[in-house]
């Protein structure tokens, strides 16, 4: 599959059509805000492109691609966790996003070092994902993430972090 074919067969349609409460008991439908949907779509694209990139690297059977494969798998697994937690405003959502962003940055850097088309496409998509996360979390585009979040005390006395 070429990078162009990958772009045509993936994207927001895979995850963008899911509701924020898909799979929850009771089936209550909550509307995700535009920014949250954009973030979820960006995470979903990163998960898909990293899965594809890892598969392509594995197909090559090149031991030099081991770190690329590992990092792509990290992005995929952490991204799937973020897709489950962020839309429901989990109190751990911000820290999951921070961990996800670190994995995305490491993977983008690794993939950017390889001249293979799938690695270059992966690095490009991950760069877009980093920008989206920074925008969602309120960080300036070039300056890294802010670590503070809006905290509020819930009725149960537990703390939750907003985005």
Give an overview in words:
This is Four-helix bundle copper-binding protein. Residues 1-37, 139-163 are annotated as: Disordered. It comes from Halorientalis persicus. It contains six helices and two strands; from the N terminus they run ααααααββ. With 163 residues, the protein is mostly helical. It has a domain at 33-137: Substrate Binding Domain Of Dnak, Chain:A, Domain 2 (Up-down Bundle). Strands 1-2 form a two-stranded antiparallel sheet. The N and C termini lie far apart (37 Å). The model is unreliable at 1-31 and 140-163 (pLDDT under 50).
Instruction: Give the CATH topology of the domain at 33-137.
Output: Substrate Binding Domain Of Dnak, Chain:A, Domain 2
The main β sheet shows up as: 2 strands, antiparallel
DSSP strand count: 2
Strand order of the largest sheet: 1-2
At the first level of CATH, what is the class of the domain at 33-137?
Answer: Mainly Alpha
Cα separation of the termini: 37 Å
Share in β-strands: under 5%
Short characterization:
This protein is mainly alpha-helical and 163 residues long. It contains 6 helices and 2 strands. InterPro entries: Csp_YhjQ, YHJQ-like.
Descriptive keywords:
disordered N terminus; disordered C terminus; YHJQ-like; 163 residues; Csp_YhjQ; two-stranded antiparallel sheet; mainly alpha; Substrate Binding Domain Of Dnak, Chain:A, Domain 2; Four-helix bundle copper-binding protein
């Amino acid at each position: 599959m070429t990078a162009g074919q990958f772009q045509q067969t993936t994207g927001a349609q895979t995850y963008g059509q899911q509701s924020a409460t898909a799979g929850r008991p009771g089936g209550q439908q909550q509307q995700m805000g535009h920014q949250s949907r954009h973030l979820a779509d960006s995470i979903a694209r990163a998960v898909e492109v990293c899965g594809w990139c890892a598969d392509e690297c594995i197909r090559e059977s090149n031991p030099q691609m081991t770190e690329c494969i590992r990092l792509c798998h990290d992005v995929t697994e952490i991204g799937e966790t973020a897709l489950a937690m962020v839309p429901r405003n989990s109190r751990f959502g911000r820290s999951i996003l921070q961990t996800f962003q670190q994995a995305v940055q490491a993977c983008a850097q690794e993939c950017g070092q390889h001249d293979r088309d799938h690695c270059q496409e992966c690095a490009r998509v991950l760069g877009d994902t980093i920008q989206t996360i920074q925008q969602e979390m309120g960080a300036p585009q070039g300056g890294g993430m802010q670590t503070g979040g809006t905290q509020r005390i819930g009725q149960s006395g537990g703390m939750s972090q907003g985005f």
